[in-house]
TrEMBL record:
N6-(pyridoxal phosphate)lysine modified-residue sites: 674
Free-text function comment from the UniProt entry: Phosphorylase is an important allosteric enzyme in carbohydrate metabolism. Enzymes from different sources differ in their regulatory mechanisms and in their natural substrates. However, all known phosphorylases share catalytic and structural properties. Allosteric enzyme that catalyzes the rate-limiting step in glycogen catabolism, the phosphorolytic cleavage of glycogen to produce glucose-1-phosphate, and plays a central role in maintaining cellular and organismal glucose homeostasis.
Sequence similarity: Belongs to the glycogen phosphorylase family.
UniProt-listed NCBIfam families: P_ylase
Highest taxon above the source species: Bacteria
The protein's name in its UniProt record: Alpha-1,4 glucan phosphorylase
Pfam family, one: Phosphorylase
Reactions accelerated catalytically: [(1->4)-alpha-D-glucosyl](n) + phosphate = [(1->4)-alpha-D-glucosyl](n-1) + alpha-D-glucose 1-phosphate
Length: 850
């Protein structure tokens, strides 16, 4: 096999049949120079990187704008069914590189800039990450936008334009400190289009009066009105000239209300009103211990839902007279329960604004809305106090009560006399509105995000609903966009793959499977190793710059990057590192496969234990990194402010992907898929999508350990777990656990007392002591595999080869055909190559929980 020795100067990554923008290098360069001069009025030679970035983004925006207009014109002509993906979070990250790739202009741009003495790579970090999400749920939404545009579907995101995204994390003395993420820098976002002419009024508070003259009507009066102004962020399709939009709503004052001040009204109340309105979309809520009682969060949810649905129905009515066509022309998808008020809001619009009767409106609502659940963690299942809903949203409250009564009556018919079951399925119970129950009642489809997750939903938290309406429940295993996570984030690997199998995989990621043939090609495996080493070198430079730590690029880069949470078990990883360290200290002659353990992740500001885990990792890092006795065989790194851009740097450089959640707790995980696609080998539990990764990659190509989901659930239900017994019987565990409080760490005995107590006195809820031995054994097996480099590279290669099924193009095609029933063909899915993904589909097994 011929390997392109200069991986940077490969041919443009253009798939046959696709249409990159027709712009030569010279044209691009001249347009950039022109744009720069017009924008900044100064010589390019005196420009800052920030100014060059602004000009480049503006130039791309022009190209994107043209495509946006033609996409809209084409859609107006063909009137396809529209998908609206409602999500309180969209974790976009940066858009410059991905827009260049999707336009087919990355190489053209890099060459044009280099002719001007500018490095494209040095401009990319000038863009602020759009961090409008907490983690997996928000990033998933962003991946889906990319796939919808790539597949040419008329799909739009609907979200909120938070002025501050997820907080910026700084590590000071080992502790997390939170700072506001001022991503807009008090300017406008380079990619967005503000559309004040399409603003929508959203109403809060007030009273509802029933009017009966002939027909019963409900009049909402004395409300406070807030204007929702849309900002459209273009979503560029992959070399297909399609541009969809992510519509982000921003809260602004209703100017008619505001002018009262000048006319002598109570100025204080007007100022309060202004501040209240501006606060509405100021801040993204971090996943905190619970949201209950946080009025502003409920206001945000309704703001998103009301603005989006009014705008959807308005644009539907511009083109269609018959409301009965709504489900045929619009699919409204709610990403978790945060937008579940879409159910009563659509009812409100259909009943109060459009004049339909209940029996017409309800079937239309259910046929239009679908819902994805993303967690079974009880503390994350949303409820809202009925009194709060009634006060803030009086008409919505009436509708929720009505939906509750009617669904209750139907259940009574199905299960006469079974009050316990009916109460358990109630939307309103114990003074709370249960958002998941509302979402299930008002949707025609409910799905989990990995096979095991859907099964657990059907057997536990949603079992009554699944028994009652089994056809509503379905699984769609998550996916990630290979265009961002492989093609854009790992250009060296993408180039190597192109050399080996050509570029068709970019359009049809299932074709990555053709790479498997190279598993016995030592030349290819060596080239793969060289790419990984280059990526590791790049990450090592970053670690040196940020943490002032030198790491060995030939050591195993073992990465654990995700939100900090007890169920994700960063602490189990720490326990293994402590054990390795203890072994090295006990035997000064011991030589191990050198390892660099890389952590990254934010803890919710109110999540005390997760913040202590960050301190624990950093304290351990200080101890190990400064201990000459271990001869640089171990390094521990915590990289601050984990975000999408940092993930794009870490994942291509990782050898090992840590996916070690307590089985049954991680709904799917998506980081696991990104690592797999970049050739990192997973060490993980049989949880979430790890199960399907194992099936796709082959059981020999992933390292699995730990309790099964069934075993965990049995322990939760029946008890019988005895962590103290493990502590006394395994000397390694006794040592590590005691070290948390016995002065081993130079921080005082109370610093990690909570970790100690949770293991020994609070039942070890996440089964760390139980899974420890299996984890250590599996880490040892993994290290042995790494030492056989040929074998290791083969493992990495097979992971890449079988990762195509986890492309969000596959996921989206499943949503499009099974849930939204889009009539338009989904390219590359059910048309070009029927069955190509089916060949890769992880085996459908009955014993999913075993
Ligand atoms: C929210 C909260 C809020 C209250 C405190 C604890 C807590 C814990 C977790 C969450 C997140 C809930 C929703 C979520 O982000 N789920 C994630 O969705 C991903 C995309 O489907 C999936 O890959 C992750 O496994 C799942 O945790």
């Amino acid at each position: 096999m011929l390997i392109n020795s200069n991986l940077y100067n490969c041919e443009p990554l253009t798939a046959p049949g696709t249409k990159p923008e027709a712009l030569s290098v010279t044209e691009f360069r001249d347009s950039f120079v022109h744009k720069f001069a017009a924008m900044h009025g100064k010589p390019l030679s005196t420009a800052t990187d920030g100014e060059k970035f602004a000009a480049l983004a503006a130039l791309l925006r022009e190209i994107i704008s043209k495509n946006l207009i033609t996409t809209r014109q084409e859609r107006a002509r063909t009137d396809p069914k529209q998908v609206y993906y409602l999500s309180i979070e969209f974790l976009l990250g940066r858009l410059l590189a991905t827009n260049l790739v999707n336009l087919g202009l990355r190489e053209t741009c890099a060459e044009a800039l280099s002719q001007l003495g500018i490095q494209l790579d040095s401009l990319l970090p000038e863009e602020e990450d759009a961090g409008l999400g907490n983690g997996g749920l928000g990033r998933l939404a962003a991946c889906y936008l990319d796939s919808m545009a790539a597949l040419g579907l008329a799909g739009h995101g609907c979200g909120l334009r938070y002025r501050y995204g997820l907080f910026e994390q700084k590590i000071i003395n080992g502790y997390q400190h939170e700072y506001p993420d001022n991503w807009l820098q008090d300017r406008s976002y380079v990619w967005e289009y503000r559309r004040p002419d399409e603003q929508i009024a959203v109403r809060y508070g007030g009273t509802v009066r029933m009017q009966t003259n002939g027909k019963t009507r409900f009049l909402h009066e004395n409300y406070e009105q807030v204007m929702a102004v849309p900002y459209d962020v273009p979503v560029v399709g992959f070399q297909n000239k399609i541009v969809n939009t992510l519509r982000l709503w921003s809260a602004e004052i209703d100017i008619s209300h505001y002018t009262c001040c000048r006319q002598g009204a109570d100025c204080n109340s007007v100022i309060d009103y202004k501040h209240g309105v501006e606060a509405l979309t100021d801040l993204l809520y971090p996943d905190d211990t619970h949201y209950e009682g946080q009025l502003l969060r409920l206001k945000q949810q309704y703001f998103l839902v009301s603005a989006s649905l009014q705008s959807i129905v308005r644009s539907f009515r511009l083109n269609h007279d018959a409301l009965r066509l709504l489900p045929a022309k619009a699919a409204i998808h709610i990403n978790d329960t945060h937008p579940a008020l879409a159910v009563p809001e659509l009812m409100r619009i259909l009943l109060d604004d459009c004049g339909l009767g209940w029996d017409e409106a309800w079937p239309l609502t259910v046929a239009t809305i679908s819902y994805t659940n993303h967690t079974i963690l009880p503390e994350a299942l949303e409820t809202w106090p009925v009194t709060m809903v009634a006060q803030l949203l009086p008409r919505i409250h009436m509708l929720i009560q009505e939906i509750n009564e009617r669904t209750g009556r139907e259940l009574w018919h199905t299960y006469p006399g079974d009050w316990d079951r009916i109460r358990a399925m109630s939307i309103v119970a114990d003074g709370q509105v249960h958002m998941a129950h509302l979402a299930i009642a008002g949707s025609h489809s409910v799905n989990g995000v990995a096979r095991i997750h859907t099964e657990i939903l059907k057997q536990s938290v949603m079992r009554n609903f699944a028994a009652c309406t089994p056809d509503k429940f379905t699984n769609v295993t998550n996916g990630i966009t290979h265009r961002r996570w492989l093609l854009t984030a790992n250009p060296r690997l993408a180039a190597l793959i192109n050399d080996a199998i050509g570029p068709d995989w970019i359009k049809t990621p299932a074709k990555l499977a053709e790479l498997a043939a190279a598993a016995s090609d030592p030349g290819f495996l060596a080239a793969l190793a060289a790419v990984k080493l280059d990526n590791k070198r790049q990450l090592a430079r970053y670690i040196k710059a940020k943490n002032n730590l030198t790491v060995d690029i030939n050591s195993i880069f073992d990465s654990h990057i995700k939100r900090m949470h007890a169920y994700k078990r960063q602490f189990l990883n720490v326990m293994h590192i402590m054990d390795l360290y203890n072994r090295l200290r006990a035997d000064p002659a011991l030589t191990i496969a050198p390892r660099t353990f890389i952590f990254g992740g934010k803890a919710a500001p109110g999540y005390y234990k997760a913040k202590k885990t960050i301190k624990l990792i950093n304290t351990l890092a200080d101890k190990i990194n400064n201990d000459p006795a271990i001869r640089d065989q171990l390094k521990v790194v915590f990289l601050e402010n984990y975000n999408v851009s940092l993930a794009e740097l870490i994942i291509p450089a990782a050898d090992v992907s840590e996916q070690i959640s307590t089985a049954s707790r991680e709904a799917s995980g998506t980081g696991n898929m990104k690592f797999m696609m970049n050739g990192a080998v997973t060490i993980g539990t049989l949880d979430g999508a790890n199960i399907e990764i194992r099936e796709a990659a082959g059981a020999d190509n992933i390292f699995v350990f730990g309790l099964s989901a069934n075993e965990v659930l049995d322990y939760y239900q029946q008890g019988g777990y005895n962590p103290r017994e493990l502590y006394t019987s395994d000397p390694r565990l006794k040592t590590i656990t005691d070290q948390l409080v016995n002065g081993f760490f130079p921080v005082g005995p109370e610093e990690f007392r909570l970790h100690y107590d949770d293991l020994l006195h609070h039942g070890d809820e996440y089964f760390l002591l139980q899974d420890f031995a299996g984890y250590v054994d599996t880490q040892n097996r993994l290290a042995a595999a790494y030492c056989d480099q040929q074998r290791w590279q083969r493992l990495g290669l097979l992971n890449i080869a079988y990762s195509g099924w986890f492309s969000s193009d596959r996921t989206f095609a499943e949503y499009a055909t099974d849930i939204w029933q889009l009539t338009e063909p989904v390219p590359f899915w059910n048309q070009d190559q029927p069955g190509i993904y089916d060949q890769l589909r992880p085996l459908a097994r009955q014993d999913v929980l075993c």
